[in-house]
Amino acid sequence: MLMALLTSLVALAIDAMLPALDTIGADLNSQSSQQTYLIISIFFAGMALGQLFFGPFADARGRRLTILVGLIIFLLGTLICFMATSMEMLLAGRVVQAFGVSGPRIATMALIRDLYVGDKMARVMSFITVIFILMPMIAPLIGQIVMKVAGWRHIFSVFAIVCVISGIWFFARQGETLPRAKRLKFNWHQFFRSVLWLIKHPVVMGASVGMGTIFGAFLAYLSGSQTIFQSIYNTGELFPLLFATLAFAIGAASLFNGLMVVKLGMVKLVSYALVLTLLFSLVLVIEAFVFAGKPPLLLFVSTMFIGFFFIGILFGNLNSLAMQPVGHIAGVGAAFIGSFTSLLSVPIAVFINQYLSTSITPIALGFLGFGLLTYLSVRYAIKALRKEAHQA
Question: How far apart are the first and last CA of the chain?
């Protein structure tokens, strides 16, 4: 529960903003809908930078200090966003927020990796994700209620409150999992050696590329979800409910994964999910073309729900697959994997979103095209993993 609350800061800081995007864009004189989408997508770019810093920091200074520093920076970014008088100032605040929240995200991942590995880590992560996924389900509703009652700026007040509560809980209940004897003093030479080792490792890179490409397609949906449901489908205040329904599919997948990963194994589940994700993407593309870019709402949501279930299984396992070989450098490994996947996914999302206007076709084609890249890269990682196991 504690780890889920800390990691849920990321989901809260992203999804609670979704109902307010148009209002914020109008109030701060956004130049275009694409600039407004950056309120979501630039957050992941900030996280990529933050993870590069906090990964080595977590290995050198421990998990607890990493979380403390990250939460303080997150609060600073939240204050900047609250006081923003322009889109540029708001986007700068979002980058600072994202940089800060990377500390808790990296430290909790490394903390869990300190205690678990392989299928057991995947199982723990899946159950954390079940709790974590409740935030994307309720965050848009929270954002919509706060925006109506007190204005969009006070969405950031909610972020600050959750940040303080989770910080107090963590320092009251969770001990340090990285003893001083096991800490790695940071130096640039060792850092670049570790990064070079990660880049050369086929399992790490195959799983990371796969995670980045499928998340890029998902991020395009996420940042454009208000356009999809409120502009294309004119669902009005039903947007949080529809968003929550699709978020529930990922939560259900995580619960299923947590129950099945120890029985079937991470590799087998990923293999099935890869094929089924491609099948979902193909069906969505066919629907988009048959219905001229706007399938009936029920058909669209039903297809996305099924597809997100398969994608949720990938989310629950690909990070564990990438982290499996990096136990000796868990902090740097988590930082590199998180940064690489974010830096890969953000341009993909921006590329897809520039075509999103009156049709869901760009989203469908994005899932199909980048889903295929995910399939190829993860199959490469699985092949390399089996080769290593055979040699061992």
Answer: 37
